[in-house]
Amino acid sequence: MMSTSFLQTPCLRRMLGDRGGNFGMMTAILLPVLFGAAGMAIQVGDMLLSKQQLQEAADSAALATATALANGTIQTSQAEAFAQNFVAGQMANYLQSGTDIKDTTSVSVQTTTSGKSTSYQVTVSPSYDLTVNPLMQAVGFKTQHLSTSGTTVGGHSQTQGSISMFLALDKSGSMGEPTATVMTESYTYKCNPHLNQNGKTTIYDTCTGTRTRYYTKIEALKLAAGNLFDQLNSADPNAEYVRTGAVSYDLVEYTASKLAWGTTAVTSYVNALQSGGGTNSSGAVNTAYTSLTAKNAAGNDAEDAAHQQKTGQVPKKYIVFMTDGDNNNDSSGGRSYDTATKKTCDAAKSKGIEIYTIAFMAPAGGQALLHYCASDDAHYFQAEKMEDLLAAFEAIGAKASAQLTRLTN
């Protein structure tokens, strides 16, 4: 048994009473804890900033995707990729090298349709693993998982407009002239001559071939008008909001196709046009104007009443006036016809009717008349070739179709 006297020796008492190494020992024990605390403090700040950046990216992606869906820029099948790319773009300056956030971003789209209104609820939920700082790594941490979610509801309501459109179309003799646009057509011809069974009469087989020729102006007009009618049909497939009519002219005015729902009647009318005669636009333009402003038995605007009865809409009214020539064959070389046409155009504009005019390979006189009659410069088209004519009617169709279907976000 150890003697207690040993504990009383001066050397041992000095050693047990020495406190000089305590600080070093405590420092050694607490240093990892201090590093961890410092690393945690720094990491918390980094995490909060990264989480804020991620939340902003999620919110922005959800809003951008819902807006794109509402505007028709993308379809629902494209929404996921659109949102993922948007998040990646927003986070590109913040992510550590090699981090691909697209694969860890989930996207949900819910579509709700009520009548003619459609809404899109888009939820974007990105996440990624943030590599922690070296101080945190020193105490055993490697990554911190960050995730968030942003939801936006966007959409549009579709309001239906309505229109009444009347075409005044030149079918004069010059409309039978060729354009500079080549077409290829099929034709049949007699071929392979041989004698009949009696060996006396020569008979032929019928063969089919192709040949090229130039489109005539009247053919170009029919194609161009057809494109316009197709656009109206696309915007109003059930013929509920569109009424169309047409009148043709050369030196005289021909029986018109009266205003009717849809484009069936007016399409048949235009396709039956044959070129011939001189040029006098005054009667046809007046017929277009009076057709759009006629009164019914009750003394009310007949077109307004027709639309209101069917759809409750007040229609936007249009005249489409086309010529390839210059009025002629009166005592003043057609100028009295110009004066009468201009008077009608002025009256139509005063009633709020929009007038689109197309000068198709027309001389200076015809161009001047149509430029005068157009509602403004944007409503006047100078078509020097068939392709210009097609583009002019297509532009008119697009503007009229925009009146038929309007989206309100």
Structural summary, described in words:
- This protein is α/β, with parallel strands linked by helices and 409 residues long.
- Strand 1 and strand 2 form a beta hairpin.
- The protein is built from 11 helices and 14 strands.
- The chain is 42% helix and 28% strand.
- The strands form 4 sheets. The chain has a 6-stranded mixed β-sheet, with helices on both faces. The protein has a 4-stranded antiparallel β-sheet with strand order 1-2-5-14.
- Helix 2 (22-71) packs across helix 3, helix 5 (217-235) runs parallel beside helix 11 (386-404) and helix 7 (282-293) runs parallel beside helix 9.
Summarize the model shown.
The protein is an alpha/beta fold and 409 residues long. The chain is 42% helix and 28% strand. It folds into 2 domains: 24-158, no CATH class; 163-181 and 216-408, 3-Layer(aba) Sandwich (Rossmann fold), CATH 3.40.50.410.
Q: Can you tag this structure with a few keywords?
A:
409 residues, alpha/beta, Rossmann fold, 2 domains, 6-stranded mixed beta sheet, 11 helices, 14 strands, elongated
- Look up the CATH topology of the largest domain: Rossmann fold
Strand fraction: 25-35%
CATH architecture of the largest domain: 3-Layer(aba) Sandwich
What are the low-pLDDT stretches, counting only 5+ consecutive residues below 50?
Answer: none
Helix tally equals: 11
CATH superfamily of the largest domain: von Willebrand factor, type A domain
**CATH top level assignment of the largest domain:** Alpha Beta
**Strands ordered across the widest β-sheet:** 10-9-6-11-12-13
Ends: how far apart? Answer: 96 Å
Radius of gyration: 40 Å
Question: Mean pLDDT across all residues, rounded?
Answer: 86
Number of domains: 2
Strand/helix succession: HHHEEEHEEEEEHEEHHHEHEHEHE
Which structural class do you get from the secondary structure elements? alpha/beta
Q: In which range does the helix fraction lie?
A: 40-55%
Number of strands: 14
Largest sheet: 6 strands, mixed
Shape call? elongated
